């Protein structure tokens, strides 16, 4: 029986390009039972056949990896339904020749142009199975405005936000009164805490909006939520059953509040107000995070979070996987956001939470692939 051939796609035209590369390297190290076709997407959007050197895709200290163009290695996924799953060279001496015919795509892409429904639409047109959420679920989860609209309509607990569309530069007095201070100013369609600022005085608000708009023309302003920050993984199995992992609590040392930085395009800039939040550096570079796994909360709270995570997954019509982030407040859990392809680096919470449930990293990858192939066969 031939091995399943999997196209692992990483990089992308996204501020989260490097984290995608690191996630892909971690995943491919554990895919010995599969035939892998590695495809890196440059920041400019070019598709290149990878050479299998995972060290190039790994993090070295604070140096982050990058997909770079390789002449003669440009590739494309054909949309021809009679050649479904075919990858071909598009330039050089082998232009037009087949690289491989794949059985399934594992799109290890984070952020815009990878986790927002765009590339999922390409896979739909090509008629190839792909791991993870579909077009609508990906798009709605990527856009924080519509995440809250969908979840709120389903009766799930979400925080208070104001949406600032392109051309809007300030809030009304009533919006400021509703939100209170502090607030978090975020790109509407971003991730990995890139472009986010914590604002404690309205005098700092215009600069925070400008900063968020370096990533997205649409900006979300959220009320700060006082509570413990926890995460829960959701995983769909080939049987169609959907389960939630043990929950994990992110514990940020108070000392980081003096050195937190605001980040865009993976370059650190100095903060305007210091805010103590789970930013890009804290997540990926500083190694200062402590994690309680499972979170030290009453069993009833853990059960409620896990139940809400599955409900949120179903509300967005999710498939495959997601990570749902919460605040546990005095009034109960509040959903912060949904990540439809969470980080898979060696320090990422999603695989760690499933490992705590007894699902190893290789088994987790196999479950994702098997589930998608079973769905496609059905």
UniProtKB/TrEMBL annotation:
Q: Report the co-factor binding details.
A: Binds 2 magnesium or manganese ions per subunit.
Which keywords belong to this entry?
Answer: ATP-binding, Cell shape, Cell wall biogenesis/degradation, Cytoplasm, Ligase, Magnesium, Manganese, Metal-binding, Nucleotide-binding, Peptidoglycan synthesis
What's a Gene Ontology MF term here?
ATP binding
Q: Which cofactor does it need?
A: Mn(2+); Mg(2+)
Catalyses: 2 D-alanine + ATP = D-alanyl-D-alanine + ADP + phosphate + H(+)
Q: Binding positions for Mg(2+) 2?
A: 337, 339
Statement: the UniProt record of this protein carries the keyword Cell membrane = no
Listed Pfam families: Dala_Dala_lig_C, Dala_Dala_lig_N
What's this protein's family per the entry? Answer: Belongs to the D-alanine--D-alanine ligase family.
Q: What biological-process terms (Gene Ontology) are attached?
A: cell wall organization; peptidoglycan biosynthetic process; regulation of cell shape
List of residues binding Mg(2+) 1: 325, 337
Function comment: Cell wall formation.
In this chain, ATP is annotated as bound at 144, 184-186, 192-193, 222-229, 336-337
Which InterPro entries has this protein been placed in? ATP-grasp, ATP_grasp_subdomain_1, D-Ala_lig_Van_CS, D_ala_D_ala, Dala_Dala_lig_C, Dala_Dala_lig_N, PreATP-grasp_dom_sf
Could you say which enzyme class this protein belongs to? ligase
Tell me which residues this entry annotates as catalytic.
Answer: 16, 192, 348
Q: Does the keyword Cell wall biogenesis/degradation apply?
A: yes
Q: What is its main location?
A: cytoplasm
Q: Which NCBIfam families match?
A: D_ala_D_alaTIGR, PRK01966.1-4
Q: What is this protein called?
A: D-alanine--D-alanine ligase
| Protein species of origin | Lawsonella clevelandensis
């Amino acid at each position: 029986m031939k091995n399943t051939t999997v196209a692992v796609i990483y990089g992308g035209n996204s501020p989260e390009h490097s984290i995608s590369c690191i996630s892909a390297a971690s995943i491919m190290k554990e895919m010995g039972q599969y035939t892998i076709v590695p495809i890196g997407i440059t920041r400019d959007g070019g598709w290149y056949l990878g050479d299998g050197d995972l060290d190039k895709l790994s993090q070295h200290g604070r140096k982050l990896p990058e997909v770079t163009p390789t002449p003669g290695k440009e590739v494309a996924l054909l949309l021809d339904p009679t050649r479904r799953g075919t990858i071909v060279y598009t330039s050089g001496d082998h232009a037009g020749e087949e690289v491989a015919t794949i059985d399934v795509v594992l799109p290890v892409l984070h952020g815009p142009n990878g986790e927002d429904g765009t590339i999922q639409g390409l896979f739909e047109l090509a008629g190839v199975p792909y791991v993870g959420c579909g077009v609508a679920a990906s798009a709605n989860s990527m856009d924080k405005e519509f995440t809250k609209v969908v979840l709120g309509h389903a009766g799930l607990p979400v925080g208070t936000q104001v949406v600032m569309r392109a051309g809007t530069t300030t809030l009304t007095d009533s919006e400021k009164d509703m939100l209170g201070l502090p607030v978090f100013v975020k790109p509407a369609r971003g991730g990995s805490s890139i472009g986010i600022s914590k604002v404690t005085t309205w005098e700092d608000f215009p600069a925070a909006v400008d900063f968020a708009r370096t990533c997205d023309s649409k900006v979300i302003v959220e009320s700060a939520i006082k509570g413990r920050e926890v995460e829960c993984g959701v995983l769909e199995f080939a049987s169609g059953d959907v389960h939630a992992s043990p929950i994990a609590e992110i514990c940020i040392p108070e000392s980081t509040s003096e050195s937190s930085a605001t980040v865009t395009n993976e370059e650190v800039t100095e903060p305007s107000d210091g805010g103590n939040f789970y930013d890009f550096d804290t997540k990926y570079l500083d190694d200062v995070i402590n994690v309680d796994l499972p979170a030290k909360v009453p069993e009833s709270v853990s059960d409620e979070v896990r139940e809400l995570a599955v409900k949120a997954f179903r509300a967005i019509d999710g498939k495959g996987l997601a990570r749902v982030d919460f605040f546990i407040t005095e009034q109960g859990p509040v959903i912060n956001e949904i990540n439809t392809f969470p980080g898979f680096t060696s320090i990422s919470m999603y695989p760690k939470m499933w490992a705590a449930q007894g699902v190893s990293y290789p088994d987790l990858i196999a479950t994702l692939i098997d589930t998608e192939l079973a769905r496609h066969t059905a």
